[in-house]
């Protein structure tokens, strides 16, 4: 992937309506965003749709990106995750069974950190999450990566929903206190 | 249901970003996001912080038709420069509605309406895929497919199929000086050591140890190589609980590692594993 500074530059160009910059931004970030939403949606057709919507939103909202408040990738991932979670919640509401008819999650490499940018911020976050007990770490990460509801987490952890809710909130407070502002 | 603690904007913002709010709370958060700048700031904080977790997610190439469709949708739109002018965009709102979702300054209601149209489309596609699958390849449909299925179980089962647990330890003296990053794949019992800041010692070797109260003495996991990454499979002898609960330490030893199998040199860095990606199946809660 391009560096964060290059992505900032591309977003600035996209904000001015530069289609070529948008194409480069897409090329540089599509696989990461697709990986993120695929984990949540677990169906390639839904992920395709969410990715299109995400990039349309990026195209129209690039001017709102503020490098003081986010990095390009965290900003884009937030848009993508929000879309994916909105979609999967609607699916659940109408009780539709969906099966991964075509999706086969690619085998993952053995080292998730190999060749990846390990930012200071990520190290800090991991250090703070490391202070939570093991079960709560897993809870927060499952919620983040898989987009699970409290009810799904409750089933998975075999705990009442209210316990899950309390754990989540307490964990997030502890992470915030650890990270500081 | 709005309980007392759901009124706490801090918690609401954090859980909104995490994605665990119930639909009513989520709608409330989205409303606040548009109207309350302090709340929006809290959401940005969490998006920035938790967003770092994206680094752990494997990139997956989307199919090429995604770009083709996206590109076609952009082509179908008015020039983006016009869209950015509120006046033009508002006038655009009176034009017949087309497939474009991209008029920035549409009224909120119209935007919501369009989003719901998108969801309906996706739902329809999902139903179609399900029907086609049931006709063409009933085998791939789970037997648990039933009229009022529990989505919870489906998701759980699918996750079981495909995701390894990953643990990471930052070996450091203090938070400001990480020296090595240890990554462990529990299922594969494999270990990767990434050199972050430690120098290559001259005429000495760094040796990695597993320190567990299940063993009377630290167990050697081998010498850390001079390259950025050292991959090793020496975790095969240990069970997952031992691996996840152990402390990992690096000592300075003679070249090639401690000749006796017992750590002799000073402990330079230590760390414990943090679960960085949730595994397929949460392990049973640990005994107290």
Can you give a write-up of this model?
The complex is a heterodimer of chains A (181) and B (288). Chain A is mainly alpha-helical and 181 residues long. Chain A folds into 2 domains: 1-95, RNA polymerase sigma factor, region 2, helix turn helix motif (Rna Polymerase Sigma Factor, Chain: A, Orthogonal Bundle); 118-181, Arc Repressor Mutant, subunit A, CATH 1.10.10.10. In chain A, 69% of the residues lie in helices and 0% in strands. Chain A contains 8 helices and no strands. Chain A has helices at residues 4-15, 19-41, 44-61, 72-93, 120-129, 134-146, 150-157, 161-179. Chain A is globular, with a radius of gyration of 18 Å. Chain A starts with a helix and ends with a helix. The model of chain A is unreliable at 93-115 (pLDDT under 50). Chain B is α+β, with helices and mostly antiparallel strands. Among the domains of chain B are: 4-56, no CATH class; 166-277, Sandwich (Immunoglobulin-like). Chain B is built from 9 helices and 8 strands. The interface between A and B is large, with 111 and 108 residues.
List keywords for this structure.
heterodimer, A: 181 residues, Rna Polymerase Sigma Factor, Chain: A, Arc Repressor Mutant, subunit A, B: 288 residues, alpha+beta, eight-stranded antiparallel β-sheet, 8 strands, 38% helix, 19% strand, disordered C terminus
Classify the fold: give the CATH topology of the largest domain in chain A: Rna Polymerase Sigma Factor, Chain: A
Helices and strands of chain A, in order, run as HHHHHHHH
Total number of beta strands of chain A: 0
- Biggest interface pair, residues each? A-B, 111 and 108 residues
The portion of residues forming beta strands of chain B comes to: 15-25%
Name the beta content range of chain A.
under 5%
| Secondary-structure arrangement, i.e. CATH architecture of one domain in chain B | Sandwich
């Amino acid at each position: 992937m391009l560096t964060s500074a290059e992505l900032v530059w591309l977003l600035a160009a996209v904000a001015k309506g530069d289609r070529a910059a948008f194409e480069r931004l897409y090329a540089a970030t599509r696989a990461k965003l697709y990986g993120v939403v695929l984990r949540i949606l677990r169906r390639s057709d839904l992920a395709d749709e969410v990715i299109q919507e995400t990039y349309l939103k990026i195209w129209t909202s690039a001017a709102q990106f503020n490098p003081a408040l986010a990095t390009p990738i965290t900003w884009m991932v937030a848009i993508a995750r929000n879309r994916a979670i909105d979609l999967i919640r609607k699916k659940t509401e109408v009780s539709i069974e969906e099966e991964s008819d075509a999706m086969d999650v690619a085998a993952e490499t053995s080292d998730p950190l190999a060749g990846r940018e390990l930012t200071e911020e990520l190290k800090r976050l991991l250090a703070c999450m490391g202070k939570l007990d093991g079960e709560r770490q897993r809870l927060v990460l499952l919620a983040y990566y898989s987009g699970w509801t409290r009810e799904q987490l409750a089933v998975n952890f075999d705990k009442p929903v209210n316990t899950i809710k309390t754990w989540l909130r307490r964990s997030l407070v502890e992470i915030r206190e650890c990270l500081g502002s | 249901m709005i309980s007392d603690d759901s009124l706490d904007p801090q918690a609401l913002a954090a859980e909104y970003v995490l994605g665990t709010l119930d639909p009513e709370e989520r709608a409330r958060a989205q409303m606040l996001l548009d109207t309350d700048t302090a709340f929006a700031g809290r959401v940005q904080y969490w998006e920035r912080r938790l967003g770092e977790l994206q680094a752990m997610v494997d990139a997956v190439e989307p199919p090429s038709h995604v770009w083709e469709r996206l590109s076609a949708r952009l082509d179908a739109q008015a020039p983006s420069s016009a869209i950015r002018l509120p006046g033009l965009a508002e006038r655009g709102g009176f034009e017949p509605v087309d497939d474009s979702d991209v008029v920035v300054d549409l009224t909120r209601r119209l935007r919501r309406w369009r989003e719901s149209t998108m969801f309906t489309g996706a739902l329809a596609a999902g139903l179609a895929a399900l029907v086609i699958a049931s006709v063409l390849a009933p085998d791939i449909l789970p037997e648990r497919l039933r009229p009022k299925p529990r989505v919870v179980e489906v998701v759980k089962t699918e996750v079981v199929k495909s995701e390894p647990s990953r643990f990471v330890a930052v070996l450091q003296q203090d938070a400001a000086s990480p020296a090595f990053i240890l990554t462990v794949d529990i299922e594969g019992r494999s270990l990767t050591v990434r050199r972050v800041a430690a120098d290559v010692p001259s005429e000495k070797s760094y040796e990695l140890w597993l320190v567990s109260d299940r063993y009377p003495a630290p167990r050697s996991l081998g010498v850390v190589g001079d390259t950025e990454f050292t991959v090793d499979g020496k975790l095969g002898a240990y069970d997952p609980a031992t691996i996840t609960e152990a402390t990992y330490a690096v000592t300075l030893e003679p070249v090639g590692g401690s000749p006796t199998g017992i750590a002799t040199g000073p402990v330079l860095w230590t760390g414990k594993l943090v679960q960085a990606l949730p595994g397929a199946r949460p392990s049973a809660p640990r005994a107290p």
